[in-house]
Amino acid sequence: MSNASDNVPFAWSVAIVVVAIAAYVGLAWLTPDRYYQLIFTIILIWAAVGVAFNLFSGYSGLLSFGHAAFFGLGAYTVGLLFVNAGISPWIGIVVAALVGVVAGVVIGYPTFRLRGHYFALAMLAYPLVLLYVFQWLGFQEVSLPMVRKAAADYMQFADTRVYIAFSGVLLAIALAINLYVARSRFGLSLLAIKQNEPAAMAAGMNPLSWKLKAIMLSASLTSVAGGLYAVVQLIVTPESVFGLLVSSRALIVTLFGGIGTVAGPVVGSLILIPLGEVLQAQLSDILPGIQGVVLGVAIIAVVLLAPEGVLPYVMKRVPRKGATAGGVLALDTTPYVRETNAPSVAAPMLEVRDIAVRFGGLQALSKVTFDVHPAEILGIIGPNGAGKTTLFNILNGFIAPTQGGVRFEEREIVGQPAYEICRAGIGRTFQIVRPFAGLSVLRNVVVGAFAHRHDEAAAYAEARNALERVGLSARAGVLAGNLTTMELRLMELARALAGQPKLLLLDETLAGLGAGEVEHMLRAIAAIRKQGVAIVIIEHTMHAMVRLADRLVVLDHGEAIATGDPEAVINLPHVIEAYLGKKWADHAAA
Amino acid sequence: MNAYVLIENVLQALYTGLVVGCIYGLMCVGLALIFSVMRVINFAQGEFLMLGMYAALFCFAQIGVGALLGPGVGAVVASLLAGVIVFAIGAILYDVLLRPVTGLSVAGTEGEGHYPQLTLTLGLSLLLQNGGLIAFGSSPQTIRTPLSSSAWELPVFGQDISLFLNKARTVACIVTLAVAFAVAIFINRSRHGKMLRAAADNAEAATYMGIRVTRAHRLAFALGAAISAIAGGLVATYYPFQPYVGLEFIIVMYAGVVLGGMGSVMGAFWGGITIGLVQQLSTLVLPQQLQNATIFVVFLLIILLRPQGLFGRNVERV
Predict the structure, then answer these.
(1) Any bridge partners for residue A370, and if so which?
(2) Which pLDDT belongs to residue A322?
(3) Is the minimum CB–CB distance between B123 and chain A shorter than 8 Å?
(4) Which of A296, A410, B13, B184 is surrounded by the most beta carbons within 10 Å?
């Protein structure tokens, strides 16, 4: 996520965090004034909430306007356990963490079906429902009673500086988790899903499962922060923990500092919280609500002036050493010489039987039947709108056919989600290339490897190997957003290969390439087949396909009108008619 | 006798629900207009409502509209004037804040710029709420008219059951209907309305047809703000308000807009009426404090189960 995390080992980053927070707590320890001690404490608490918020929203790209739900549940868990059952906040905070996990699932599971505006609005509503429910339950004001004996057992300390240390520990834990996530399969998967959900699914990821894990973690940390807040403030009211200002504060410190960066929420909290608090203390007589004005102005200014946040804004203006330029792609533009496989006698690996799809009144495919044999290159050609991409969407599980079946290695795969089909061994690329533009080429490809590898080192090794296989190793460190069309196509090919597919679906991989680039690509595809991967490729430029494919299937208006040897197929009159119209078919026959 | 009380209560709740619902409906129309044209969910819409209340109070008490026209007509005229004032504020806010993050400048960017828009209007909402606190103070205000504390008594089935029609709310309801009707005519019949609808449908294509999308957006934002402000001015005649009052209504507006199908301006009006009915009828069976919770729950159920709304088609592509 943050660029720094690529280069600094995990242990070192954690050490830096611990030292920085220890220094902060040490400095704060020198403050005699209890009011300033409180400010030092809540800066850390809001920073932790920001980090927790960022763990979810920064990685998943789904802005949560409802983290107050988790914060408030944590605060009330600690408060009510203490008041009603005499349970110490030490235990209460642990329970709060569990409550957060449960709340994360209960809220996340139904809400992740929503997107964009709907997701934002639904998240906004949860804490506000809780606010009214807690008011109605009669918890307008829960005060934590003072304990005389063994106060430390109940997290009560005469010296309020202890709370600064507690909050420091909480923030350190939150940051350590964030640093870990940033380099793990977890964080990378979330980033991939955020940038392009269909591509991530086709690469073997289950988006719902990752998002749920993210919100559980984030909600749990937020609840713990809420619990600590209750301990520090000694009083919990619905407005102070479920109110709109709680969610806004989490969001604002994060966006202000820089969403998606590890340190962003900390920077945001360090600047905005004391500014708001001090102004509030000094000016609230003449300017009530000045804290809200500060937060409002801060977020408006950031959105308009530095949308990526203050920290990235500053970092961009600091000259960096060793910016990765990356090598140059070595293009081999000599004409590709056709290689074919002898017709296979082995059992087909993929059997497509009588597939039909309707979209409302449109019959997109009807009665399409064909086989794919191991290590075969099967070309699917047809004019625009013939149903080629729809066919792929069925084969990799994006849509279900209205009727018919698809068997892959003797198993029915219709009805399985895309990520399961990918894990079963069917990889695909897209007609419109779907890169994770903000990630390096290597990381783009690792996403594919993670589909079946949980071990990170092995996944990276496999990704490098896949880049080698398509000839893109020199560009491994470049951001995918900076690639040429040719390089993007090769990267997609590598990402699909990194998933170790047995069958690869290539959707118009040759589209938009120059003449020389086509030759390079044909050679790359043929090389993959040589390693034993079966390939189904869609194209509408017949010329290249005749040279590449072992067999062709011709689709027209959703029907397979011809199947067989390329040279033979393209000379069939009804194929020519489909492509060029009746006149040319007659012409060819004459 | 008990049955009479029950019937009376139900009828009273139905009536109040309809009347309050019409006013909610008008608020919702303002939010929906902004959303349907600009694809922006305006978090600050509740604050436009609040500004409308203070603007109406200002016109009524300071400028002397109330003294000039009498408390009844004066309050209505003050509300309409509040609409004009907030229209101007909306137009300025659009140019200063909204324009850089909406419309053609973000077309085709990641998520069409939804999140910057949401956070920007969230910031605007905080700014207006707390700025309002500084400017107007925290003590609750109302536009004092004798109407708010008097009612028409309407006998139903002879003498046994009678409905009390609060005069302020009933007048407010009639005015909202008139304003909503005017808005509908404006959007569906006028040239400017056509411009708004074209810009809403496809901003880029509208540009090619010679429509100035920025102008359409400014008009939509200012008009949307003004419509909610008029509703606010009317609410101010029977409901005490302070600078944070927007929070009490914003979720009503969201619920109404989602209920009516996001993107449908008039659907939002029906959505608002439904919310008014749900809110008032819920008081028959649930404690008063859960009135707002009920709205939220209805809102969540709608958004989770039928995001295209009760009345509309799904306009937002997902």
Answers:
(1) A352
(2) 46
(3) yes
(4) A296
Whether B303 and A65 lie within 8 Å, measured CB to CB: no
Reported as a pLDDT band with limits 50, 70 and 90, residue A134 is very high
Query: Can you tell me the mean pLDDT for A212-221?
Result: 96
| Residue B63 φ/ψ, nearest 5 degrees | -75, -25
Q: If we measure between CA atoms, which residue out of A213, A205, A474 comes closest to residue A324?
A: A474
What H or E segment, with its residue span, contains residue A142? strand A142-143
CA of A195 vs chain B CAs: smallest distance (Å): 9
Q: Which residue has the higher pLDDT, A142 or A543?
A: A142
Question: Start-end ranges of CATH 3.40.50.300 in chain A?
Answer: 373-396+417-589
- Residue A562's beta-bridge partner residues? A554
CB contact residues (below 8 A), chain B span 262-281, against chain A: 262
Contact B33, B224 (CB under 8 A): yes
A373-396+417-589: CATH class = alpha beta
Rounded to 5 degrees, what are φ and ψ at A507? -100, 105
For chain B positions 21-80, those within 8 Å of chain A (CB to CB) are 35, 41
Chains A, B: CB contacts within 8 A come to 137
Contact B134 A290 (CB under 8 A): yes
Mean pLDDT for A121-133 is 89
Mutation target among A60, A114, A124 for the B interface, most CBs of B within 10 A: A124
Contacts of A299 in chain B (CB under 8 A): 119-120, 122-123, 126
Q: Could you report the predicted ipTM of this complex, rounded to two decimals?
A: 0.87
Domain with CATH 1.10.3470 in chain A: 4-317
Task: Count Cβ neighbours within 10 Å for each residue of A298-331 and write b for 16 or more, e otherwise.
Answer: bbbebbeebbbbbbbeebeeeeeeeeeebeebee
Q: What is the pLDDT of residues B264-304, one digit of tens each?
A: 888 899 999 999 999 999 888 888 778 878 888 888 888 88
Q: Is the pLDDT of residue B314 over 50?
A: no
Residue showing tokens 């470049």: A478
- Asked if A201 and A419 count as a contact pair (C-beta separation under 8 A), the reply is yes
Which residue is listed with tokens 């969201």?
B254
pLDDT at A343: 64
| A283: Cβ contacts below 8 Å, ≥ 6 apart | A290
3-state secondary structure of A19: helix
Q: Taking 50 as the threshold, does the pLDDT of residue A2 lie above it? A: no
d(CA B122, CA B143): 28
The model's pLDDT over A177-204, given as tens digits with 9 standing for 90+, comes to 999 888 788 888 888 888 778 888 888 8
A101-125 tens-digit pLDDT: 999 999 999 899 887 778 888 898 8
> pTM for the whole thing?
0.83
**Separation in Å, CA B228 to CA B10, B27, B224:** 29, 4, 6
Structure tokens at A466: 């896949």
Q: B54: which 2 tokens?
A: 């203070």
Backbone angles phi, psi at A140, to 5 degrees: -55, -30
Q: Give the three-class secondary structure for A546.
A: helix
Q: CA-to-CA distance for B217 and B200, rounded, in angstroms?
A: 9
Question: Which of these, B212, B266, B211, lies nearest to B31 by C-alpha position?
Answer: B266
Of A532, A529, A576, the C-alpha closest to A554 is A576
Phi, psi of B162 (to 5 degrees): -140, 145
- pLDDT category at A5 given cuts 50, 70, 90 is very low
Pair A536, A427: CB distance under 8 Å? no
Question: Which CATH fold topology does A4-317 show?
Answer: ABC transporter involved in vitamin B12 uptake, BtuC (1.10.3470)
